[in-house]
Amino acid sequence: MLFLLWLVPAAPFFGAVLLLLFGSRWPRKLVALVGAASIAVAAAAAGGIAARFLIAPPPGHALTLHLWTWFSTGGFHPEVALYLDPLSLVMILVVTFVAFLIHVYSIGFMAGDAGYSRFFAYMNLFVGSMVTLVLAGDLLLLYLGWEGVGLCSYLLIGFWYRDPANGRAARKAFILTRVGDTAFTIGILLLFHALGTLEIPQMLARAPAVWAPGSGFAMAAAALLLGGAVGKSAQLPLQTWLPDAMAGPTPVSALIHAATMVTAGVYLIARMHLLFALAPKVQMAVAIVGAATLLLAGCSAFVQTDIKRVLAYSTMSQIGYMFLALGVGAWPAAIFHFMTHAFFKALLFLGAGMVIHALRGEHDIFRMGGLRPVLPSAYWTFLIAGCSLAGLPIVTAGFYSKDWIIASAAGNTALWVAALVGALLTSLYIYRLIFLVFFGPRHMPVAVKPGLAMVIPAWVLAVLSIGGGFGRAHFAALVTQAAVGAESSALTSGLASLAFLAGLVLAWAWWKRAAVARPAPTFVERFWYAGWGFDWLYDRLFVRPAMSAAAIGRGDFIDGFYRGIARWFGAASRALSRTESGNLRWYAAAIAAGTALFLAIAVFL
Amino acid sequence: MIRDALALAAILFGLGLVGVLVRRNILFVLMSVEVMLSGAALAFIAAGARWGQPDGQVVFLFILAMAAAEVSVGLALLLALYHQYNTLDTNVASRMKG
Questions:
Q1: Largest CA-CA distance found in chain A, in angstroms, rounded
Q2: Is residue A397 part of a domain?
Q3: Same domain membership, residue A510 and residue A561
Q4: In this predicted model, what pLDDT tens digit does every residue of A90-134 receive, in sequence order?
Q5: Which of A519, A542, A572 finishes a domain?
């Protein structure tokens, strides 16, 4: 069964190729079938592999499947190899399964769209790239998946490319993540230079022997990898692309936020956690970045008016939790939170998609309201996901994963307090959203009700958002292969529950007041609304100088030289084209003159 | 004797060339091409006779066959031109200028 591992990335890629080549000529039902079935095959293969892995684990709880040598030059032989261990096993299970549900949902959501087959082709490619990233046994192959994910996010954020704003959002996402990717590339080169291999298990085995803890090389490599992770996972300071990435269709947002793309950074750090353990200062930086993003994004989420932007900031903040956990060395907690987050965040987006679909593309939460009786499925699933996100104690998955992270952070008081305040903020913004959208008077008529293809995946995810959090001690034992349990303490759990309750009550109080009269936004609210002014700052610091430098460089002498060459060839072409008069007798005369000329040369010279 | 024959061949060739260049009617252009071919063929015959070799006459037969083929293609083009433009003037068919 385990040798079927290659099927997990291959099936989505095969689906993407089929759809790209033939999809435009196929009927929509066939497109939907191929698009969803390829992910279903991958998910089924992942499920079978997981069962096999748990019943009869391979020696050392890890398995490397060498497919072929990518290329061979000098002393460098990167392999196309898949590496399966409990960490990548959890990742592929969650990624393929959640992606499958999102694909099924998309069949309903995208039903009327002109780019139906293009959409499914990109989505399949996206999942395939992510699975490649996760399963890569070689850092270079991981980088290929990493870039594939970046490309697909660009294609899908700009999916409705007729609106220039969407194209801008797609470019912004691509360029900002590219900043991080550059750091990641340098990090890969540095690691290869120092360790002589890019095979991940070997690298991690060699690193402690080569570097002492806290050595400069290890710090530099870890910091560069962190740069890559920060870009992909939308953490400070490269976080500004994520809210704009909402320009894509809602299932794309669900896929980006739950299963693919933004969790890639978390995975990278979890995968390389031994390296980060050698660089304690960088590890601390991971925690600080996470905590800062957690709080900043939580505040921003509270003042957004676009339903999808609230969820975007929410994702940033939840990924901040995962970074916080990674920073304090509790990577199993981060991966556990990744899993529960995948369930409830995908569900939140699917619910938001149902609402947007039902209101014919309305995104403004202040124009929604009172949708509880008319969209019961959307309401209940959204509520369950919201409770899981906010951490409703005892019954939801989100509570357990967040509790684990907060308990892990207890060693550092500042981080611990930040995590608790983050829990309060989370509860506050998500209930504000739920009250505004589903309670109170209705402002807009509902145009279409969601079909079964949209409702069923939502309910499956709702079950997972509740039940996905149990058994975290087994989870910890599985991914670490050691007899460690999940950390938790009564004090932390109590305070987290209190934070949840306080957020709920405050959100209720805020909504009661806002329902009467919507107050004009204060300066702080406007500041938070604009994402703490990062866009403004980057625009002044980087975008405008680059644009003006480009404007100056337009007419310099190098350009003049090449323009001159182009002009010369243009003139020569026009002169020669005049000889093509189309006049038969001129051609004959030219032939005769040419012959006479060559004869003269042959005879007289 | 070869001198006279070659002179005659050159005159024939030159006349044909002038005809090709100055005539606008495609029928006369084709006829002028035939005259040019005759000039070339005559030169081969004369050279063959001068050195007592059969090659000159062989090449003449080739030229004859080639001329027949050329005329058939040329006349087909002529008919096509006439169908298209209702004239035999080659200047009319100059639409493919660059």
A1: 110
A2: yes
A3: no
A4: 888 889 998 998 888 888 888 877 888 888 899 999 999 999 998
A5: A519
